[in-house]
Design goal:
Layout (H helix, E strand, L loop, with lengths): L1 H19 L3 E6 L3 E6 L5 E6 L8 E3 L4 E6 L4 E6 L8 E5 L5 E7 L4 E6 L4 E6 L6 E5 L3 E7 L4 E6 L3 E6 L6 E5 L8 E4 L4 E5 L5 E6 L6 E5 L9 E4 L2 E6 L2 E6 L7 E5 L6 E6 L4
Antiparallel strand pairs: 1-2, 1-24, 2-3, 4-5, 5-6, 6-7, 8-9, 9-10, 10-11, 12-13, 13-14, 14-15, 16-17, 17-18, 18-19, 20-21, 21-22, 22-23
């Protein structure tokens, strides 16, 4: 009995140390709301009630807005964060296409977004003006930007991950999904690594910016419902159906369930309080 109590105390201390090693908030979407999970307190707050599928979110750390595309409403919207006034502002009306992925470049005052069924990558100003179609792709669903090194990474749903300069030069496929597919991907700009989840296998994978040194972080052997991933420090946050989980970047680590919602979690954005 004493051994069991000691083990439980050690396990809880380990989880607490993992969570206390950094601070920040995790924003995530379901089919009816945008939520905020406080890493320190584990409190969950409803930021916005809205009824649509949101596959992605990104943040303008300069002007303090969260941007996200609404797949079936065919638009891109934003709201101030952190703020008590979270009035939703329409930035882009992209009907009849389906915006899925989004990335913000506050340095050059641009938004990049992907149209999954429109098969294209587009860009506009932060206020929605000067819309430009940059490229035609197959099934682009996620986009991430390394603003410091000026690299763009795009997930092609059933193909792989494309790496390109912002001017679309040096365009190449660096990761092949090998007959699988991925709905989510994030990047670690400090370590220059990519992280994604293979939807049909449930594996969390990682590779360097050039697609080499591919690692399997965890093998869940559970296909489907893993729609979202975010990286902060030494941790990976991801969704598995209605669960929000955390796992260390070290391969073979054991995940920790942080929160369970009543709806499937569709997207995650890890808000870094340091502004990086």
């Amino acid at each position: 009995m004493e051994v069991h109590v000691w083990w439980c105390m050690c396990f809880l201390l380990h989880c607490k140390l993992q969570l206390s090693s950094f601070t920040g908030h995790i924003l995530f979407s379901t089919n009816n709301s945008i939520m905020e999970f406080d890493i320190d307190t584990r409190n969950v707050t409803v930021l916005l009630v809205q009824s649509d599928t949101v596959f992605d979110m990104d943040y303008d750390y300069k002007n303090r807005f969260i941007y996200f595309p609404r797949y079936y409403t065919h638009d891109i919207v934003r709201f101030a964060y952190p703020s008590k006034n979270r009035t939703l502002q329409t930035v882009i009306q992209s009907s009849p296409y389906h915006p899925s992925g989004i990335a913000v470049d506050p340095t050059n005052a641009h938004i990049y977004w992907t149209d999954l069924l429109g098969h294209r990558l587009s860009r506009c100003n932060l206020d929605g003006t000067n819309v430009t179609v940059l490229s035609t792709l197959s099934f682009p669903i996620v986009i991430r930007l390394d603003l410091t090194n000026r690299w763009m990474f795009i997930v092609e749903l059933k193909i792989g991950i494309i790496k390109s300069r912002f001017d679309l030069l040096e365009n190449e496929t660096i990761v092949d999904f090998l007959s699988s597919q991925a709905y989510c991907m994030d990047i670690d700009t400090n370590e220059h690594r990519l992280y994604w989840i293979l939807f049909s296998k449930g594996d969390i994978k990682s590779a360097t910016y050039d697609g080499s040194d591919v690692k399997t972080i965890i093998s869940t052997n559970s296909a489907g419902n893993k729609m979202a991933i975010g990286v902060l420090g030494s941790n990976i946050f991801y969704s598995d159906n209605k669960q929000l989980l955390m796992v260390d970047k070290t391969p073979g680590s054991t995940p920790t369930v942080l929160y369970i919602d009543t709806n499937r979690i569709e997207s995650i954005f890890v808000f870094n309080q340091s502004g990086m």
